Amino acid sequence: MFSNKTTEQIKLETRPSSVGAKSFYNNPKYRGWIYQSLLLVFLVSFFYTIVSNTLDNMAAQGIKSGFSFLNTSAGFDVLMSLLPFETTDSYLKIFSIGILNTILVSVVGIIFATILGFIFGVAYFSRNYLIRKISIIYVEIFRNIPVILQVIFWYTVFNSLPIARESFNIGDSIFLNVTGLYIPQLVGDSGSGLVYGAIVAAIIGVFSIKRWATKRQEVTGEQFPILWTSLALLIGLPLLALIVSGVPFHFDYPALKGFNFRGGTTIIPEFISLAVALSIYTGAFIAEAVRAGIQSVPEGQTEAARSIGMKESKIMSLIIVPQAMRVITPMLNSEYQSLVKNTTIATAIGYPELFTVFAGSALNQVGQAVEIMFMTLAIYFAINMTISFVMNHLNKRTELTTR
Amino acid sequence: MQAKEFKPLPDLPAPLSTTGPIAWLKKNLFSSAFNITVTITITAALFAIIPGVLDWLFFSANWSGTTQADCVKDGACWVFIQAWSQQIFYGSYPGDEIWRVNLSLFLLACVIALSFILPAHLRNKVAVPAYLLLPFICLLFLDGSNIGLKPVSTDLWGGFSLNVLLAAASIIIAFPFGFLWALGRQSHMPFARSVSVTCIEFFRGTPILALFFMGSVMLPLFFPADVSVDKLLRVWIILILFMSAYMAEVFRSGFQAIPQGQYEAADSIGLGYWQKTLLIVFPQVIKIAMPNILATFVMVFKNTVFLLVIAVPEMLQVIMSALSNSNWLGGHAIEGYLFVGFIFWVCCFSMSLLASSIEKKLDTSHKN
Q1: A57-164+262-403: which CATH architecture?
Q2: B29 touches chain A (CB under 8 A)
Q3: What is the pLDDT of residues B50-93, one digit of tens each?
Q4: Rounded to whole angstroms, what are the CA distances from B348 to A200, A323, B297?
Q5: In terms of CATH, what superfamily is B152-293?
Q6: Do A130 and B223 touch (CB under 8 A)?
Q7: Closest CA to B252 of B201, B299, B300
């Protein structure tokens, strides 16, 4: 009685037959092929025109093609580098320095944006009227102002700080002035390996205790004070190692020599401005995501938790947040990705991340736009794919299990 | 025996401890020791900060004058904004021709108003062509060379009006492209689908700044050597492609929200593919996707500021070049940036309010 025909086929058969109704161009299958081959022809001719034009233009302007420029010496300095760098180093070195700087500012930005976002997102549900209002004001102000303006604003604020001689001074070890933030650097002497080893061992220990405790609770229902044991492990073990090995560390303090500070670690103003702006901007979006996530959990969940006698402090962490994470995680994924994409605004203030040093300075000198843009974009895609992979993995764990 | 008539006693007022301002204060500000501390700390901080800020912004600010010398009080120097206001809003567009920019903005406002006041049966037939024609009409007026007005080179266009018009023109043209890509993404033709997916993912995954950069360094290479394409036109192309990718995703979520029955109903009365898409699906998608379309517009509007990196004289770029003007070297950066931030905040915030009010109006689902 019921045929296996598709709607389109039935339509063809039941329509009042016009002359061409059964001809091949009215068959959706053939028509699909015709459309697609037209699209293919268009794309091929489009790309052919582009490629031939580009080759012609490059030949006319004397731009070489290929990746051989990567091994030539760059001849310009970068403001900040995680690798040892000299001006004679190659463009490939510039490329890797750019990638590292991008990753550094992205990671710092993601960490602080997440902290800010969760604090202000949860603050929206505070019992205190002022805290609620502050959360709303934060989100609505920083979400609606272009991030590039925020970066330039913080950079301007930073540039109006006092000079080195009059810098803000915290306990003679942390200094803040117009040239940057100077903090003491922890230097490990011989024997510090033992302490690092103790830290790693403590982390592994915490994870295995947590696993064992969960298993025991599932079997016997007995709870184990995980938080206190973990804290004891994390603090105690490295402390023990420190004492045993005779404190093999010392701080390298920054000190004013001549016109500026020497020693310690310097954080350049460009980095701080960019990290602050990105964290605050993305934090506003994350706060909004967290708010939406918590609101998506029905009120009945809280009431049910109370009715079985759960402590108020445990309801948020055991009932509300795990369910809210289902909504929050996919949004976090896209916010993190847009943060990474937004690191490119560093160009406006000159922080040497990938886009500024490679697609900016290097491209200016070499002129091989196609290769350089291709390499730059490939890195952004790779970073975003990694974030997407990790977040999807997290999402799988928080997803609702349906039967 | 006569039944006693029942006379209710007058209602007692609600106990003071649950209603009224005191109860509200108690519940919202002083409910626990922690809350009391927080309330006091925040109030103290506000009292410490706000008077100084208000004083700088308004009371001891300089409001009138024409040159930097008029900024004598130690508050903000709003004279700076006043003196540069024409450039901030219109760029270097010739003073006598500014009515053309205003006309374009007015037309934009008219078309938006049109789509709200037209009766439903005319809305799609009149408003959609009006929207699609608008960028080109504005272009004719702003450029002027084709309709007998004084030609104005695109180098002179700028300021806040450029931000607005560029964002609007991009999202309008991105509408059909985005719709096409979204249709392609859910089509049954494998090749068309993969082309759409590639386009969408490429333009969504690339930083907008990198796209602008490609527009200024790579796009000229793509054209034949004897064709020189205007810089603003290249920026427009880039913005359209970027927006199309985001709009495609907005439309896709719109498609998914439409019940399958709508498609089947359209099939059952014998509508063809394009009839089904344009008469049944499109009007519903627009309605459902409206909050997201507005959010996308807010995004692209904020992103037009990124154009300062490739030296397009949009609003912030104008402020920055005004700051380096030799007559205004007094360091008015904070005033300038606050002003730009304020203007953008007002626009974006009102649009997000509009979006959430539309969302509330459309929300008929019964949660929980």
Answers
A1: Orthogonal Bundle (1.10)
A2: yes
A3: 998 998 888 888 888 788 777 888 888 888 888 888 888 998 88
A4: 48, 31, 9
A5: MetI-like (1.10.3720.10)
A6: no
A7: B201
